[in-house]
Amino acid sequence: MSDPVFTPRVFSGIQPSGGLTLGNYLGAIKRFVEMQDAGTHETVYCMVDLHAITAKLVPPAELVHNTRELCAGFLASGIDPEKSILINQSQVPEHAQLAWIFNCVARMGWMGRMTQWKDKSGKNAEASSLGLFAYPALMAADILIYHGTHVPVGEDQKQHLELTRDIAAKFNHDYGVEFFPITEPVIEGVATRVMNLQDGTKKMSKSDPSDKTRINMTDDADAIAKKIRKAKTDPDPLPGEIAGLDARPDARNLVNIYAALAEVSPQAVLDQHDGALFGHFKLALADLAVEKLAPISAEMARLMDDPAEIDRILTRGAERAREITVPILERTYDIVGMLRS
Ligand code: TYM
Fold this sequence. Notes:
Elements: E1 9-14, H1 22-38, E2 42-47, H2 49-52, H3 60-77, E3 85-88, H4 94-103, H5 108-112, H6 115-121, H7 130-144, E4 150-152, H8 158-175, E5 184-186, E6 195-196, E7 199-203, H9 221-229, H10 249-262, H11 266-273, H12 278-304, H13 307-336
Helix pairs in contact: 3-12, 4-7, 4-13, 7-8, 9-12, 10-11, 10-12
The chain binds ligand 1.
Ligand 1 is lined by residues 11-15, 23-24, 27-28, 48, 51, 139, 142-143, 151, 153-154, 156-157, 160, 191-194, 203-204.
């Protein structure tokens, strides 16, 4: 039997857990816009509000605010709701319905090996929610309810995408079908792991208690410039070759951020700044970051003044999404043997 041909379709999601960072922008959203504009794939982008409540209770009004703000971030960065399908996860119920089926496909052992589960549940797994444990099965459902073939993400999502492939393969094998595609992760470029501005060995994260460690997409020009000027570096000048950044994680991080924002290779950044001291390089990086990011934060603020328009876009996105997800869920139910009316 020949392999089925799946429509090339990109899916990716971001948690509305408060505050988009430069890591989310460079590692994910910027790639989403590029893949949308390339026009080679259908593109579906999602605010994953169901995932956002797995770690802790989020005050309801805060979740609503964060979801709208994330949507504003997508739009301000260049996601076009006509070209892409832009949705909020809970408004497309088939995600959660397929997730239940996948809860019955995935094995406890697989889930227990997820490093994000281990990190987030820490020493207190017993007190963690069942939702946090099952998180990757919902993520697999997010992708596969669209028969998503390509998933652009940052490096930290790699293991979850391997699990998505395992779930698709096991479902297909157990039911003797070739129904779900084996998804390709798209983890490319210099910004797949943007690091913490105060410690280049740690990932930049929205959950870090210190705001100095990250650039938020809502930061204004002054805040962006100040955080870059105060970023940790070392006393040596910039090297002429990439190998000279080995064992200099803070320096490497700033070079990679510059390269990603300027859309050039890290070597091109070093060619331009060979021998520069960080005091000087940071000023150039701050100017570049303000030029690229400040218009996005200004546009986000403008969009947030009209939440009704954001809600309209998401309602329309959900309608378009369900043209894809309802038939895929129905076929899944038929395969599994569920009666439907
Ligand atoms: P989340 O919300 O933690 O992050 C969203 C996206 O941003 C990327 N990212 C980074 N990239 C580079 N450097 C960083 N410092 C950095 N921090 C975050 C993440 O890799 C991700 O691509 N489980 C997912 C959300 C999700 C999803 C999905 C993703 C739910 N369902 C289906 C893809 C497909 C998450 O928590 O991402």
